Amino acid sequence: MATKVEAKTEKLYECEVKRRRVRASGTGYEPFWKIKNVDEALGDGDTEFRCKDCHGALKVHKRHIANGPASHAAHKLKSDAEHCAGILVRAAEESRPARLSSTPVQ
Question: What top-level branch of life does the organism fall under (predicted)?
């Protein structure tokens, strides 16, 4: 008889944030993605986040109380969480192949 599989709580503590740097030619800026701890990214005032594994959009949760959960992120789309190489949401889906997000953040 099949048993119901509980979903694990998804918490990502590292993500990619969008930054700007001076171009090699020295004229103007170019965007790039940098891996950062979520708590550090929130402290630096970063506003654009994506998953470092599947490049999907993330929802960021900031720590509000001292003994509460640490600042973390979670996928906005369930399909991204199910296929992300960095996180497996359900134990029964561990054999599911990892892939990039169907709607990656550019």
Answer: Bacteria
